[in-house]
Amino acid sequence: MSAAEAWERVTDWSAHAAGVPLTRARTVTPGPPGLGSRFVVRTGVGRLGVDDPMEVVRWEPPSAGRPGVCRLAKRGRVVLGRAEITVYAEGSGARVVWEEALRLRGLPRLFDPALRRAGRLLFGRALAGVLAEEARAQDI
After folding, report:
1. For 27-57, what is each residue's pLDDT tens digit?
2. What separation in angstroms does the CA of 123 have from each of 31, 32, 91?
3. DSSP characters over 36-62
4. Which is deepest, 11, 88, 114, 140, by most CB within 10 Å?
5. What angle do CA 113, 17, 89 make, to 5 degrees?
């Protein structure tokens, strides 16, 4: 998969929830993704869940000789922090790096290591699902 294809997949916000149980995403801003786009990822069942509203605050698609970078600001009442997705061209393929700085309002910093591990698992699963879906589509 090329860097441009990987970029398109990892910035399709509704696709991120597909690989994560009890999670769904909805776009708040109409139109294609880009700077200023907003969306909400909800994890949970019914009223027992948490919303993770995000806004795209940096949008630089990959181009010749330059990786693509998308930075998301988490704007929720509970979930705070940022995420940054970088897509590097490597030969005819791509490498995707997802960095997350996550905080939950009211949770003592003592729980930060456990939160990091849980985030790595959750976001890794979402990213793998998004990229695998593209690979399956190309096999057809």
Report:
1. 788 888 899 999 888 877 778 888 889 999 9
2. 24, 22, 25
3. T-EEEEEEEETTEEEEEEEEEEEEE--
4. 11
5. 80
For residue 106, how many C-alpha atoms fall within 13 Å in the half-sphere facing its CB?
Answer: 4
**What radius of gyration, in Å, describes the C-alpha atoms of the chain?**
15
63-121 tens-digit pLDDT: 988 999 999 999 888 888 898 999 999 888 899 888 888 888 888 888 888 877 877 77
Cα distances (angstroms) measured from residue 132 to each of 6, 10, 19, 86: 10, 11, 10, 17
Which overall architecture, per CATH, does domain 3-139 show? 2-Layer Sandwich (3.30)
**Cα 132 from Cα 47, distance rounded (Å):** 31
Amino acid at 6: A
